[in-house]
Amino acid sequence: xxxxxxxxxxxxxxxxxxxxxxxxxxxxxxxxxxxxxxxxxxxxxxxxxxxxxxxxxxxxxxxxxxxxxxxxxxxxxxxxxxxxxxxxxxxxxxxxxxxxxxxxxxxxxxxxxxxxxxxxxxxxxxxxxxxxxxxxxxxxxxxxxxxxxxxxxxxxxxxxxxxxxxxxxxxxxxxxxxxxxxxxxxxxxxx
Length: 191
What we know:
single chain, 8 helices, elongated, mainly alpha
C-alpha cells in the first residue's frame, strides 16, 4: 500500500514538474526564495499594528517567530526521521525530471517551505479576517503558490507538500489560538 502511494506520488511529481519551462524557471526561483516575501510580511505586520496596536503586534511577532521555528524544527524531525530522498537526489529520476533549483539536499519529507507558508497564511489570515474578509483566501493562495514552487523546481514530491501544508496549518491555527489567549490574559489586563 505505501509503495503504491509512493509510486503515485512520483508519477504526480513528474507530471507537475514537467509542466515547467526554462522561460519560467527564474520566476519560480524568486517565488520560492524566503526573502522575496519580506515586503508582504512587513505589510501584514503593518495591518496587524493598524488594527490591534503596539502590544498585540509585539505578541504577534513573538508568536510568528515561535511558529516558524516550530514548523522548521518539525520538518527537520520528519526529514531525518523518515529519510525520504528528495526527487532531485535520485539518479533514476534525474534523467526524467526538470531540475531548476539552485541546489538539492538529501532528504525532503516534509517541505519546510510549504509548512511555514501555510502556518503564516492560517495564523495571519485568522488574525486579520475580522478586518479583511478576503485576506485569508489571498494568503492561502500565496501558500499554495510557494508550496507548488518546490515541486516545480524539482526538490519535493506532492506528498511532501501536502504533509507540510497540513502540519503548517495545524501549527498556524494553534499559534493563533495561543496568541489570542495570551492577548486576552496579559495585554488587555495591563491597559
